[in-house]
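Figure S7 source data.
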Amino acid sequence: MTTTDLPASLIPTLPGQHYTDRNVFGLEQSRIFEQMWFCAVRAADLPTPGKFEKVQIGRESVLVVRGRDGGLRAFLNICRHRGAQICTEDSGEVKRAFQCPYHAWTYDLSGKLIAAPNLTSMPDVDRVQYGLVPVHLREWLGYAWVCLADEPPSFEEDVMGAVVERLGDLESIDRYDLDTLEVGRRITYDVKANWKLIVENFMECYHCATIHPELTEVLPEFADGYAAQYYVGHGAEFGDDVKGFTVDGSEGFDKLPGVADDQDRRYYALTVKPSVFINLVPDHVIFHRMFPLAEDRTVVVCDWLYTKEVVESGKDVSRSVELFHRVNEQDFEACERTQPAMSSRAYARGGVLVPSEHHISAFHEWVSARISG
Ligand code: FES
Ligand code: FE
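C-alpha coordinates for the predicted FE2/S2 (inorganic) cluster complex:
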Protein backbone atom coordinates (compact mmCIF):
# COMPACT_ATOMS: atom_id res chain seq x y z
CA MET A 1 0.00 0.00 0.00
CA THR A 2 1.25 3.49 -0.66
CA THR A 3 0.42 6.52 1.40
CA THR A 4 -1.44 7.96 -1.59
CA ASP A 5 -4.23 5.42 -0.93
CA LEU A 6 -4.88 7.01 2.44
CA PRO A 7 -6.05 10.37 3.76
CA ALA A 8 -3.05 12.49 4.73
CA SER A 9 -3.69 12.08 8.46
CA LEU A 10 -3.38 8.26 8.28
CA ILE A 11 -0.18 6.29 7.71
CA PRO A 12 -0.04 2.59 6.83
CA THR A 13 1.60 0.16 9.23
CA LEU A 14 4.00 -2.55 8.18
CA PRO A 15 2.25 -5.37 6.29
CA GLY A 16 1.26 -8.38 8.41
CA GLN A 17 3.96 -10.55 6.92
CA HIS A 18 6.62 -8.52 8.81
CA TYR A 19 5.28 -10.09 12.00
CA THR A 20 5.02 -13.68 10.82
CA ASP A 21 7.72 -14.31 8.24
CA ARG A 22 10.69 -16.34 9.43
CA ASN A 23 12.96 -14.69 6.88
CA VAL A 24 12.06 -11.21 8.09
CA PHE A 25 12.75 -12.33 11.65
CA GLY A 26 16.08 -13.80 10.48
CA LEU A 27 17.06 -10.42 9.03
CA GLU A 28 16.06 -8.72 12.28
CA GLN A 29 18.22 -11.19 14.21
CA SER A 30 21.29 -10.66 12.07
CA ARG A 31 20.95 -6.94 11.37
CA ILE A 32 19.39 -5.64 14.58
CA PHE A 33 19.86 -7.93 17.60
CA GLU A 34 23.33 -9.18 16.58
CA GLN A 35 24.55 -5.71 15.64
CA MET A 36 23.25 -3.42 18.39
CA TRP A 37 23.91 -3.16 22.13
CA PHE A 38 21.53 -5.60 23.80
CA CYS A 39 20.68 -5.51 27.51
CA ALA A 40 21.51 -9.00 28.78
CA VAL A 41 21.62 -9.41 32.58
CA ARG A 42 21.32 -7.51 35.85
CA ALA A 43 24.93 -7.25 37.01
CA ALA A 44 24.04 -7.90 40.67
CA ASP A 45 22.56 -11.27 39.68
CA LEU A 46 26.16 -12.42 39.18
CA PRO A 47 27.69 -11.27 42.48
CA THR A 48 30.70 -13.60 42.77
CA PRO A 49 33.34 -15.18 40.49
CA GLY A 50 32.01 -18.14 38.54
CA LYS A 51 28.34 -17.09 38.56
CA PHE A 52 26.97 -17.06 35.04
CA GLU A 53 23.83 -16.51 33.03
CA LYS A 54 23.02 -17.72 29.55
CA VAL A 55 21.02 -15.43 27.24
CA GLN A 56 19.79 -15.75 23.67
CA ILE A 57 20.68 -12.79 21.47
CA GLY A 58 19.68 -13.07 17.85
CA ARG A 59 20.78 -16.53 16.73
CA GLU A 60 23.55 -16.76 19.33
CA SER A 61 23.65 -18.22 22.82
CA VAL A 62 25.79 -15.97 25.02
CA LEU A 63 27.33 -16.62 28.44
CA VAL A 64 27.81 -13.69 30.82
CA VAL A 65 30.12 -14.56 33.71
CA ARG A 66 31.71 -12.87 36.72
CA GLY A 67 35.50 -13.28 36.47
CA ARG A 68 38.05 -13.87 39.21
CA ASP A 69 39.07 -10.21 38.92
CA GLY A 70 35.49 -9.17 39.72
CA GLY A 71 34.70 -7.99 36.19
CA LEU A 72 31.90 -9.26 33.97
CA ARG A 73 32.72 -10.87 30.63
CA ALA A 74 30.63 -12.34 27.84
CA PHE A 75 31.43 -15.22 25.48
CA LEU A 76 29.67 -17.24 22.83
CA ASN A 77 28.38 -20.38 24.53
CA ILE A 78 30.14 -22.63 22.02
CA CYS A 79 33.00 -25.04 22.55
CA ARG A 80 35.88 -24.40 20.14
CA HIS A 81 36.55 -28.12 19.76
CA ARG A 82 33.54 -29.51 17.95
CA GLY A 83 30.94 -26.91 18.80
CA ALA A 84 28.94 -28.33 21.69
CA GLN A 85 27.05 -25.79 23.81
CA ILE A 86 29.09 -25.37 26.97
CA CYS A 87 26.12 -24.60 29.24
CA THR A 88 22.56 -25.69 28.75
CA GLU A 89 21.16 -24.32 32.02
CA ASP A 90 19.91 -20.70 32.09
CA SER A 91 22.13 -19.74 35.02
CA GLY A 92 24.45 -21.29 37.53
CA GLU A 93 27.89 -21.22 39.05
CA VAL A 94 31.17 -22.88 38.17
CA LYS A 95 34.11 -23.10 40.59
CA ARG A 96 37.07 -22.07 38.47
CA ALA A 97 36.25 -22.96 34.91
CA PHE A 98 33.71 -24.10 32.34
CA GLN A 99 34.12 -27.67 31.19
CA CYS A 100 32.51 -28.77 27.96
CA PRO A 101 30.36 -31.82 28.67
CA TYR A 102 31.34 -33.47 25.35
CA HIS A 103 35.14 -34.12 25.44
CA ALA A 104 35.97 -32.04 28.51
CA TRP A 105 37.83 -29.10 27.03
CA THR A 106 38.08 -26.63 29.91
CA TYR A 107 38.03 -22.83 29.79
CA ASP A 108 38.87 -20.46 32.63
CA LEU A 109 36.61 -17.55 33.57
CA SER A 110 38.49 -15.25 31.17
CA GLY A 111 37.67 -17.66 28.33
CA LYS A 112 41.16 -19.13 27.91
CA LEU A 113 41.44 -22.82 27.07
CA ILE A 114 43.25 -24.26 30.08
CA ALA A 115 42.91 -28.02 29.80
CA ALA A 116 41.80 -30.77 27.48
CA PRO A 117 42.33 -34.50 27.63
CA ASN A 118 45.49 -35.39 25.68
CA LEU A 119 46.22 -31.74 24.99
CA THR A 120 49.86 -32.31 25.90
CA SER A 121 50.03 -34.56 22.90
CA MET A 122 48.54 -31.76 20.79
CA PRO A 123 51.07 -28.96 21.28
CA ASP A 124 49.80 -27.05 18.26
CA VAL A 125 46.52 -26.06 19.89
CA ASP A 126 46.90 -22.40 20.82
CA ARG A 127 45.13 -21.94 24.12
CA VAL A 128 44.22 -18.33 23.53
CA GLN A 129 43.27 -18.73 19.91
CA TYR A 130 41.04 -21.65 20.85
CA GLY A 131 39.57 -19.91 23.86
CA LEU A 132 35.89 -19.01 24.07
CA VAL A 133 34.92 -16.31 21.57
CA PRO A 134 34.58 -13.01 23.48
CA VAL A 135 31.59 -10.70 23.09
CA HIS A 136 31.74 -6.94 23.82
CA LEU A 137 30.25 -5.95 27.17
CA ARG A 138 29.44 -2.63 28.86
CA GLU A 139 27.84 -2.05 32.24
CA TRP A 140 25.32 0.74 32.64
CA LEU A 141 22.32 1.33 34.94
CA GLY A 142 23.26 -1.84 36.82
CA TYR A 143 22.89 -4.05 33.73
CA ALA A 144 25.40 -5.79 31.46
CA TRP A 145 24.80 -4.78 27.85
CA VAL A 146 26.48 -6.93 25.21
CA CYS A 147 27.14 -6.47 21.52
CA LEU A 148 27.83 -9.30 19.09
CA ALA A 149 29.11 -7.03 16.32
CA ASP A 150 32.85 -7.18 15.57
CA GLU A 151 32.87 -3.37 15.68
CA PRO A 152 30.12 -2.30 18.10
CA PRO A 153 28.26 0.93 17.45
CA SER A 154 28.87 3.77 19.89
CA PHE A 155 27.28 2.89 23.26
CA GLU A 156 27.16 6.62 24.06
CA GLU A 157 25.20 7.41 20.90
CA ASP A 158 22.93 4.39 20.63
CA VAL A 159 22.11 3.54 24.24
CA MET A 160 22.82 6.66 26.30
CA GLY A 161 21.70 8.78 23.34
CA ALA A 162 18.24 7.20 23.42
CA VAL A 163 17.88 8.23 27.06
CA VAL A 164 19.09 11.76 26.37
CA GLU A 165 16.70 12.07 23.44
CA ARG A 166 13.80 11.26 25.75
CA LEU A 167 14.80 12.93 29.03
CA GLY A 168 16.96 15.78 27.73
CA ASP A 169 20.13 14.73 29.57
CA LEU A 170 21.77 11.81 31.38
CA GLU A 171 21.59 13.52 34.75
CA SER A 172 17.82 12.98 34.76
CA ILE A 173 18.26 9.20 34.83
CA ASP A 174 21.39 9.30 37.02
CA ARG A 175 19.22 10.77 39.78
CA TYR A 176 17.37 7.46 40.09
CA ASP A 177 20.76 5.78 40.71
CA LEU A 178 19.75 2.51 39.03
CA ASP A 179 23.17 0.95 39.76
CA THR A 180 22.49 0.87 43.48
CA LEU A 181 18.85 -0.20 43.38
CA GLU A 182 17.93 -3.80 44.07
CA VAL A 183 15.44 -6.14 42.48
CA GLY A 184 12.36 -6.23 44.71
CA ARG A 185 10.44 -8.41 42.29
CA ARG A 186 11.10 -9.99 38.91
CA ILE A 187 8.42 -11.41 36.65
CA THR A 188 9.15 -13.13 33.34
CA TYR A 189 6.44 -13.04 30.67
CA ASP A 190 6.49 -15.49 27.78
CA VAL A 191 4.55 -13.54 25.18
CA LYS A 192 3.21 -15.22 22.06
CA ALA A 193 3.73 -12.19 19.87
CA ASN A 194 6.31 -10.64 17.59
CA TRP A 195 8.71 -8.27 19.35
CA LYS A 196 7.66 -5.32 17.18
CA LEU A 197 4.06 -5.55 18.41
CA ILE A 198 5.42 -5.21 21.94
CA VAL A 199 7.57 -2.19 21.06
CA GLU A 200 4.72 -0.51 19.17
CA ASN A 201 2.36 -1.10 22.06
CA PHE A 202 4.82 0.39 24.50
CA MET A 203 5.28 3.45 22.30
CA GLU A 204 1.63 4.47 22.16
CA CYS A 205 -1.00 5.35 24.69
CA TYR A 206 -4.00 5.31 22.38
CA HIS A 207 -4.92 2.00 24.05
CA CYS A 208 -4.52 3.25 27.64
CA ALA A 209 -8.13 4.29 28.16
CA THR A 210 -9.39 0.97 26.79
CA ILE A 211 -7.18 -1.56 28.53
CA HIS A 212 -5.43 0.14 31.48
CA PRO A 213 -8.08 1.19 34.02
CA GLU A 214 -5.67 1.17 36.98
CA LEU A 215 -2.92 3.08 35.17
CA THR A 216 -5.24 5.80 33.89
CA GLU A 217 -6.58 6.22 37.43
CA VAL A 218 -3.05 7.04 38.62
CA LEU A 219 -2.04 9.00 35.49
CA PRO A 220 -5.23 10.78 34.31
CA GLU A 221 -3.57 12.32 31.24
CA PHE A 222 -3.10 8.82 29.83
CA ALA A 223 -6.86 8.53 29.45
CA ASP A 224 -6.58 11.07 26.60
CA GLY A 225 -4.44 8.62 24.67
CA TYR A 226 -1.49 10.91 24.03
CA ALA A 227 1.89 9.28 23.94
CA ALA A 228 3.28 11.50 26.62
CA GLN A 229 6.58 9.69 26.48
CA TYR A 230 7.49 11.32 23.21
CA TYR A 231 7.72 14.89 24.39
CA VAL A 232 11.28 15.47 25.53
CA GLY A 233 11.50 15.66 29.29
CA HIS A 234 7.77 15.32 29.81
CA GLY A 235 6.69 13.15 32.70
CA ALA A 236 3.03 12.26 33.16
CA GLU A 237 1.72 13.78 36.37
CA PHE A 238 0.02 11.72 39.06
CA GLY A 239 -3.67 12.47 39.65
CA ASP A 240 -4.43 14.97 42.44
CA ASP A 241 -5.69 12.43 44.94
CA VAL A 242 -3.07 9.81 44.05
CA LYS A 243 -0.53 9.23 46.83
CA GLY A 244 1.82 6.81 45.08
CA PHE A 245 2.46 4.72 41.96
CA THR A 246 0.52 1.75 43.30
CA VAL A 247 -2.39 -0.33 42.07
CA ASP A 248 -4.89 1.63 44.17
CA GLY A 249 -3.07 4.96 44.26
CA SER A 250 -2.16 4.44 47.90
CA GLU A 251 1.10 5.58 49.45
CA GLY A 252 4.33 4.13 48.01
CA PHE A 253 7.78 4.45 49.56
CA ASP A 254 10.02 7.45 50.20
CA LYS A 255 11.17 9.18 47.06
CA LEU A 256 14.54 7.84 45.84
CA PRO A 257 17.24 10.03 47.39
CA GLY A 258 18.47 11.68 44.18
CA VAL A 259 15.10 12.31 42.54
CA ALA A 260 14.58 16.04 41.98
CA ASP A 261 11.46 17.95 43.02
CA ASP A 262 10.41 18.42 39.41
CA GLN A 263 10.55 14.62 38.94
CA ASP A 264 8.42 13.93 41.98
CA ARG A 265 4.86 12.70 41.38
CA ARG A 266 5.72 12.04 37.76
CA TYR A 267 6.09 8.99 35.54
CA TYR A 268 8.63 8.84 32.71
CA ALA A 269 8.65 6.05 30.13
CA LEU A 270 11.46 5.49 27.70
CA THR A 271 12.41 3.02 25.00
CA VAL A 272 15.99 2.04 24.25
CA LYS A 273 15.89 0.23 20.94
CA PRO A 274 15.84 -2.57 20.22
CA SER A 275 14.80 -4.31 23.43
CA VAL A 276 14.54 -2.17 26.57
CA PHE A 277 11.71 -0.18 28.18
CA ILE A 278 12.32 1.81 31.33
CA ASN A 279 9.69 3.40 33.57
CA LEU A 280 10.80 5.89 36.19
CA VAL A 281 8.58 6.83 39.14
CA PRO A 282 9.66 8.64 42.31
CA ASP A 283 10.12 5.60 44.56
CA HIS A 284 11.07 2.81 42.13
CA VAL A 285 12.09 1.91 38.61
CA ILE A 286 10.50 -0.68 36.35
CA PHE A 287 12.98 -2.10 33.85
CA HIS A 288 11.94 -4.41 30.98
CA ARG A 289 14.37 -6.49 28.91
CA MET A 290 12.97 -8.24 25.85
CA PHE A 291 14.37 -11.41 24.30
CA PRO A 292 12.84 -11.99 20.86
CA LEU A 293 13.05 -15.79 20.41
CA ALA A 294 10.95 -16.37 17.29
CA GLU A 295 8.78 -14.38 14.90
CA ASP A 296 5.81 -15.09 17.18
CA ARG A 297 7.44 -15.41 20.60
CA THR A 298 9.16 -12.88 22.85
CA VAL A 299 10.25 -13.33 26.45
CA VAL A 300 10.06 -10.16 28.53
CA VAL A 301 11.85 -9.98 31.88
CA CYS A 302 10.54 -7.18 34.10
CA ASP A 303 12.46 -6.01 37.18
CA TRP A 304 10.94 -3.80 39.86
CA LEU A 305 13.89 -1.94 41.42
CA TYR A 306 13.80 -0.34 44.88
CA THR A 307 16.35 0.99 47.32
CA LYS A 308 18.40 -1.57 49.22
CA GLU A 309 16.68 -0.35 52.37
CA VAL A 310 13.19 -1.15 51.01
CA VAL A 311 14.25 -4.58 49.74
CA GLU A 312 16.24 -5.57 52.84
CA SER A 313 13.61 -4.39 55.29
CA GLY A 314 11.12 -6.75 53.65
CA LYS A 315 8.61 -3.91 53.14
CA ASP A 316 5.56 -4.94 51.16
CA VAL A 317 6.18 -4.04 47.52
CA SER A 318 3.11 -5.88 46.26
CA ARG A 319 0.88 -2.84 45.69
CA SER A 320 3.47 -1.10 43.53
CA VAL A 321 4.38 -4.33 41.72
CA GLU A 322 0.72 -5.10 41.09
CA LEU A 323 0.12 -1.86 39.18
CA PHE A 324 2.64 -2.49 36.44
CA HIS A 325 2.17 -6.25 36.50
CA ARG A 326 -1.44 -5.61 35.53
CA VAL A 327 -0.30 -3.13 32.86
CA ASN A 328 2.10 -5.78 31.51
CA GLU A 329 -0.58 -8.45 31.45
CA GLN A 330 -3.04 -6.09 29.76
CA ASP A 331 -0.44 -5.05 27.17
CA PHE A 332 0.79 -8.55 26.41
CA GLU A 333 -2.73 -9.88 26.12
CA ALA A 334 -3.41 -7.16 23.52
CA CYS A 335 -0.23 -8.15 21.65
CA GLU A 336 -1.20 -11.83 21.72
CA ARG A 337 -4.67 -10.93 20.50
CA THR A 338 -3.11 -9.10 17.56
CA GLN A 339 -0.45 -11.65 16.56
CA PRO A 340 -2.82 -14.19 14.91
CA ALA A 341 -4.31 -11.43 12.75
CA MET A 342 -0.90 -10.69 11.28
CA SER A 343 -1.21 -13.73 9.03
CA SER A 344 -4.80 -12.96 7.99
CA ARG A 345 -5.49 -11.68 4.50
CA ALA A 346 -7.35 -8.84 6.24
CA TYR A 347 -3.94 -7.54 7.32
CA ALA A 348 -1.90 -8.52 4.26
CA ARG A 349 -1.40 -4.86 3.40
CA GLY A 350 -1.22 -3.79 7.03
CA GLY A 351 -3.43 -1.43 9.00
CA VAL A 352 -3.30 2.30 9.66
CA LEU A 353 -1.89 4.60 12.30
CA VAL A 354 -4.09 7.40 13.62
CA PRO A 355 -2.43 10.79 14.27
CA SER A 356 -1.58 10.12 17.94
CA GLU A 357 0.34 7.01 16.85
CA HIS A 358 2.36 8.66 14.10
CA HIS A 359 5.68 8.25 15.89
CA ILE A 360 5.25 4.45 15.45
CA SER A 361 5.83 4.96 11.75
CA ALA A 362 9.30 6.26 12.61
CA PHE A 363 9.91 2.93 14.34
CA HIS A 364 8.66 1.07 11.25
CA GLU A 365 10.96 3.11 9.03
CA TRP A 366 13.86 2.41 11.36
CA VAL A 367 13.28 -1.36 11.32
CA SER A 368 12.78 -1.41 7.55
CA ALA A 369 15.96 0.57 6.94
CA ARG A 370 17.99 -1.71 9.20
CA ILE A 371 16.82 -4.97 7.65
CA SER A 372 17.17 -3.74 4.11
CA GLY A 373 20.64 -2.36 4.66
FE1 FES B 1 33.55 -29.51 23.50
FE2 FES B 1 34.56 -31.58 22.24
S1 FES B 1 32.88 -30.35 21.67
S2 FES B 1 35.16 -30.77 24.14
FE1 FE C 1 -0.05 -0.25 27.58
